[in-house]
Amino acid sequence: MARPIALELAPRDPREELRKRLDEAPMEYAEALLDSYELLLQLHNHGVFDLLRGVLGAGDKLVESAAAAAKSEDSVRAIRNAIILGKVLGQINPDVLQCVATATSETLGCYEKPVIEPPGLFSLLNQFRHQELRRSVALINRFLETLGNQIKLRADKK
């Protein structure tokens, strides 16, 4: 009669297999692995993993709260305003915006506390001799005129 062959397998150690794979990995991966270990340690030290566990644990409650907040009239208005502001910023010539930023910086940004004394009447009239001031006043006037026209158009539509 046939006798069964005894098959004895060594117990499998998954940790040892992982260690062996890591030892056999190309050396070019070593720097990337060390960097990823360092990143994981920093994330752990700053509590990012605790935060993510909390978010995942809250799951449905977090989504429900966000959905309820997004349904409010204020949120809808804020989203619409953000879209409109994005369009406005997209339509502004970057050179003009740079001029505005420079003028703002030179006017308000160079002092700790900007102290601007109101000019006297004659001093103010004297400033109108400068072409740059008249150009700026004309730009502000055009903006205000266009704004007034838009407000009137909106009021006429209602």
Q: How many DSSP E strands?
A: 0
Q: What portion of residues belong to β-strands?
A: under 5%
Nearest-integer average pLDDT: 84
How large, in whole angstroms, is the Cα Rg? 34 Å
The N- and C-terminal alpha carbons lie at a distance of 103 Å
Tally of individual helices: 7
Q: Structural class of the helix and strand makeup?
A: mainly alpha
Major sheet: none
What percentage of residues falls in helices of 4 or more residues? over 70%
Pick out the low-confidence regions. none
Helix and strand element order: HHHHHHH
Overall spatial form: elongated
What can you tell me about this protein's structure?
The protein has 158 residues and is mainly α. The protein contains seven helices and no strands. It has helices spanning 14-24, 28-45, 48-71, 73-91, 94-108, 121-127, 131-157. It is elongated.
What is this structure, in a nutshell?
With 158 residues, the protein is mainly alpha-helical.
